[in-house]
User: Fold these one by one.
Assistant:
Number 1:
Amino acid sequence: MLPEQKDGKQVWRMIEVKSSTSVKDYHRDDVTVQAFVAQSAGVPLEAIALAHIDSSWIYPGNEDYQGLLKENDLTAEAFSRTDEVKGWIAQAQSIAAEPSEPAIGTGDHCGTPFECGFYDYCSRDEPKPEHPINWLPRFSSTKEKELTIKGVYDLKDVPDNLLNDKQQRVKDYTLANEVFSTLLVPQQIWLRMIFPPIFSTLKPSSSPYLSGKVPV
Ligand code: SF4
């Protein structure tokens, strides 16, 4: 929250800082809700923006981080969605007022954009496979849903013809309880392992070690 002066009065400018490299839809919702809460609490909010990492920025060195964050003014959008937020609140309040919890099963909505904190509770009666299907890298959620409907929850029961090479490898090695490794690791990865600081670049939550590097 940044204090500013307008017509002799103090107003506020809010900047929500995210560690991503672009504005996501859920960021827009987040900013909209925050603007609504601040205004409803009587804060004279003049503007609201979302700042994220500028992935084209190059660290010049000397602890100069000017330009690392890219600011996006979302004031007009956030302020125009007040009725939408009121609708969300009314919906949430009517659900909270129900005598029992809604009968909604777990699914994609539990992990998008982040894993819901109630997942263990909501999935308490669901089968607990030893090797969950979601261990498969980039396995289509549609295929996973179709398998779930058929009662397939464990990797061992996933038909091989639904898997690509990498997924098949994950399945095979997982079920065999073996570690997969290859000597065909690209040279740069080996170099990273041997000289980690030299190849380090900025992570969203950290700082670059060397000048001339871009955030990744
Ligand atoms: S885990 Fe969260 S999102 Fe999924 S059904 Fe339960 S409350 Fe809803």
Number 2:
Amino acid sequence: MTQTALIADGGRTDVVGRPMPDFPVPAPLSSHGPARIVAMCNQKGGVGKTTTTINLGASLAEYGRRVLLVDFDPQGAASVGVGVNPHELDLSVYNLVMERDVRLDDVVQTTAIDGLDVLPANIDLSAAEVQLVGEVARESVLARALRPALDDYDVILVDCQPSLGLLTVNALTAAHGVLIPLECEFFALRGVALLIETIEKVRDRLNPALEIDGILPTMYDSRTLHSREVVARVHEAFGDTLLHTVIGRTVKFPDASVAAEPITAYAPNHPGAEAYRQLARELVARGDTA
Ligand SMILES: Nc1ncnc2c1ncn2[C@@H]1O[C@H](COP(=O)(O)OP(=O)(O)OP(=O)(O)O)[C@@H](O)[C@H]1O
Ligand SMILES: [Mg+2]
């Protein structure tokens, strides 16, 4: 695997030199739920939030988990990425959070991946940010909307938009955990302190149980010292919040998005697919998902 190195005694280390644990294939589940809700969050754009939502979701589904992807970005990229056309939606997550008579079952769509469903979004959702400002309990409309799904799924992954606005605060209020994808480039760390401050505010005021599940380095290039330095600095600053798994940079990810498939379906044997499977196993081993 490209993201791990072999050391002399045969033990593997991760990219910052910690021993790489062996993450076992998760045991099958005999029943489903209650779901753990995980928000994919980073206010910086283009860091791999949507790619991680789709591919972690697909990997967990491969391991027999029932997974719901919640597209909570008006760009609708997570919906497109699993084969839903956002322009042809009768109902989207916007209707679910804004209209009391819309039921979750009316909005959820199945995907080509067994065990992977999606609550799709489109540009309508951008109006919610403004309309919610005047609502009662405006930070918890997503949490309320997702309640009926908790018994049916093992994991609910919420793909956030690149901002710390009201939609993202809703995702953090609904979530049990936050996963922070971080692009391996020099300025990546700049926004993380602000993100963590926001997470702590939501924890203090709205959602005391909220945990940071991990920081996931993405677009890692093993050929550059630079990638390695960024991850080393993340480790210095955040310790074992840094996951062992890193996601390498490869054009197979944009290729898979064009094909509207998870990489695990588009190129099942590619190291990028294996990296997301390892992420799924690591999160299950950490107790961060079912
Ligand atoms: N590991 C990777 N290697 C190469 N390209 C990647 C990788 N991960 C994601 N990409 C590509 O980078 C672009 C941005 O990724 P993605 O859409 O997942 O980020 P995002 O954080 O969701 O962006 P936004 O903030 O706009 O929602 C996409 O074109 C995606 O295909
Ligand atoms: Mg995105």
